[in-house]
Design brief:
mainly beta; Leucine-rich repeat, LRR (right-handed beta-alpha superhelix); 10-stranded parallel beta sheet; 4% helix
């Protein structure tokens, strides 16, 4: 990593972000993981060169709305292992973001703002309490990997048919009862992981997927 545009403050026991950091407008990669942070200042939108942001392994219960006002944030956004139950609506502005990790938080609903992140290639939302996926997920037409392990999903929406680039779908540990026929219409689906799912009744969908070459783990 280029030391002039990368600031790595991983596990520095900061407690709070120094105000002087928001003057570092040249930063493209900012790592603040594992610092017991409870808040992030709205001043974060001063970092207009930011491409990658790691806020994982902290104590954040909310995020500043200004986080969505950094259009260059397009590589990685790590928010895993915090106390988040919602995302700011402005995050829908991050149209070019390719990777988002919101795993190990307190989400009970799939954040609607994610549907606006139409450039996503990989989404990790494992280990939450998400009970359903909204129809708006069909907007993630470039998504290749969707990781939903250990949530509360009982079914998938027919709108999943919009994920034409999806290669991997991880549903491990969910109380899945129903899989839509739409899954068989995903031309690039290579792997469907249903391990630790004991609630799914016999499904013709699975037989069709396997016949098409998709590997189904169960």
């Amino acid at each position: 990593m280029d030391s002039t545009t990368t600031l790595n403050l991983w596990k520095q026991h900061l407690g709070r972000v120094p105000k002087s950091l928001w003057d570092r407008t040249e930063i493209e990669t900012l790592i603040l993981a594992d610092n017991d942070l409870t808040e992030i200042s709205e001043s974060i939108d001063r970092l207009q060169s930011l491409k990658t942001l790691d806020l994982g392994h902290n104590l954040l219960a909310s995020l500043p709305n200004n986080l969505g006002h950094i259009p260059g944030l397009r590589d990685f956004l790590y928010l895993h292992d915090n106390h988040l139950a919602a995302l700011p609506p402005s995050l829908a502005n991050l149209k070019d973001l390719r990777y988002l990790n919101i795993s190990e938080n307190r989400f009970t609903e799939f954040p609607e703002s994610i549907a606006g992140m139409t450039g996503l290639l990989e989404l990790r939302a494992t280990d939450n309490s998400i009970a359903y996926l909204p129809a708006s997920i069909e907007r993630l037409t470039r998504l290749r990997e969707l990781h939903l392990r250990n949530n509360q999903l009982t079914a998938l929406p027919e709108a999943i048919v919009g994920l034409k680039e999806l290669r991997q779908l991880d549903l491990r540990g969910n109380p899945i009862e129903y899989l839509p026929e739409a899954l068989t219409l995903l031309p690039r689906l290579e792997k469907l992981d249903l391990r630790w799912v004991s609630t799914l009744r016999s499904s013709a969908v699975l037989a069709k997927l396997e016949a098409s070459g998709c590997i189904v783990y169960r």
